[in-house]
Amino acid sequence: MQCICSEEAATYDSKHGKLNERLTKEIQARLDWIGVNWASTDTDSDESDDESKPAEVPKPFQRRREVRLLDYACGTGMMSKALAPYTTQCVGIDISENMVAAYNAQAENQGLSHDEMHAVVGDLAAADGPQPADLLADPRFFGFDVATVGGGLHHFADPELAAARLSQRLRPGGVLLVWDFLPHGPIHGHQHGVMHHGLSKERVRAMFEDAGAGKEFSLEVLGSGITVGSGDEVTRREIFLARGEKGT
Q: 173 with 248: CB under 8 angstroms?
């Protein structure tokens, strides 16, 4: 499922900081395109920049729409952190205990409560059903407004199964959102559990549709991609964002 080994959790953010920062900006610039009725955005109110107006009410006292996010193969929480300002709850799931510990430690360091952001160890894409079965059968792991996979699909043995399992966790009209790479060649020393050398636009569209989350499907390629490798083993990989809605 997740390519990053547990022992890499402590250094993951520092190694991928620039990419995470870029992806966060790209995602936050596409809130309308993602299509969730967010808990709050910068344009929610009619307030102008008039400094004579009262300061914004602190978050604990705001009345906000409830918006729940499921972050699958969450790692240290890049997708959760990118969308946390616009949601009321982020729930992460990852097979790595160390990644889950890092996710929860970062949430706590940000002053977020367990109800606002937390992760658990689990595998939604297990061939014999989500594991641990008792935990993930709990109603609190269903009915999400948005479910995300950030850079994880190409590490899954069966990305289509993962998408279908995530769609089951969405409320009717909920949004499935992923980022990953378009097809590319292999690079020596950069496999890290890679199962698929990128995913084609056609495959991603079919994946969403077969999962029941293909309504208003859209895929956007983000700029010129990223450079991977060194020396003679250098290539550029194109990154995409894809979204689709679960049928009502």
A: yes
